[in-house]
Design brief:
Length: about 240
């Protein structure tokens, strides 16, 4: 009988650790907060650094022989960085970048400008409008919300302002801004000159108290008792009078 020669078996790659790498691997292998997959990978490397074979490491860790060989080879090539998962391509995108850009452009416009009878956009309404216009086809509201979140767009929260129509506003605002800068008619204010800003406070009205003053108690003056009793009815105007 003619025998066949045995196939050569690849030798396990030797692993040499520095002191810092060994400490890091020990924390990963025996840490309570380490992920299970990272813990097992660190244990594989530590066993390999002791000169053990892949078959023995597989028996002691309960992993498959190919898994042990894979992480041993990765660490030998790239070190600690190789113990993390590689980036994965994932599922190909269902929508093109142009469709996403058109969706964001629509969200940045008020619904009234596009002929939609809405006061403001919401993600479900945006998704329905994109499908109705044929921009993206059927799309979920969560997908639209994710697109807007990438650029911090919130079309359901918008602010409006009134354009100034007073022709003399520039001169009036200039005087106020000069006073904030302690300047009046081009001359800086002195150290003994002050700028007082006052508001008429039209919403604050002086009202009569609803409850009578309580009798004074032990070490409790009448004024303080009255203030504590009617604090809910007093306005800033009353408090200034009491002071």
């Amino acid at each position: 009988m003619i025998g066949l020669s045995a196939l050569p078996v690849a030798c396990a790659r030797p692993i040499f650790l520095r002191a810092a790498e060994r400490e890091r691997l020990k924390k990963m292998a025996y840490g309570h907060k380490t992920e299970y997959r990272l813990r097992m990978r660190a244990q594989v490397v530590l066993h390999a650094a002791r000169g053990r074979s892949n078959a023995r490491i597989a028996r002691e860790t309960g992993l498959h022989l190919d898994t042990v060989r894979c992480w041993r080879d990765r660490f030998a090539d790239r070190g600690l960085a190789a113990l993390s998962d590689r980036e994965r391509s994932g599922r190909p995108p269902s929508y093109t970048p142009l469709q996403v850009a058109e969706a964001k452009a629509l969200a940045c416009r008020l619904p009234a400008e596009t002929g939609v009878p809405l006061a403001r956009w919401s993600c479900p309404e945006l998704a329905a409008e994109l499908a109705a216009r044929g921009i993206t086809g059927p799309v979920s509201a969560s997908t639209v919300r994710r697109w807007l979140r990438d650029d911090a767009l919130k079309p359901w929260q918008h602010r409006s302002w009134i354009f100034i129509t007073d022709p003399g506003f520039r001169a009036k605002a200039g005087r106020v801004l000069d006073l904030y800068a302690r300047t009046w008619q081009g001359v800086p204010l002195g150290a003994d000159e002050y700028v007082i800003s006052a508001d008429e406070k039209t919403s604050i009205q002086a009202r009569c108290r609803c409850h009578p003053t309580l009798a004074p108690g032990h070490a409790y003056p009448t004024t303080l008792a009255a203030i504590a009793t009617a604090s809910r009815q007093l306005t800033p105007f009353h408090l200034m009078s009491l002071r």
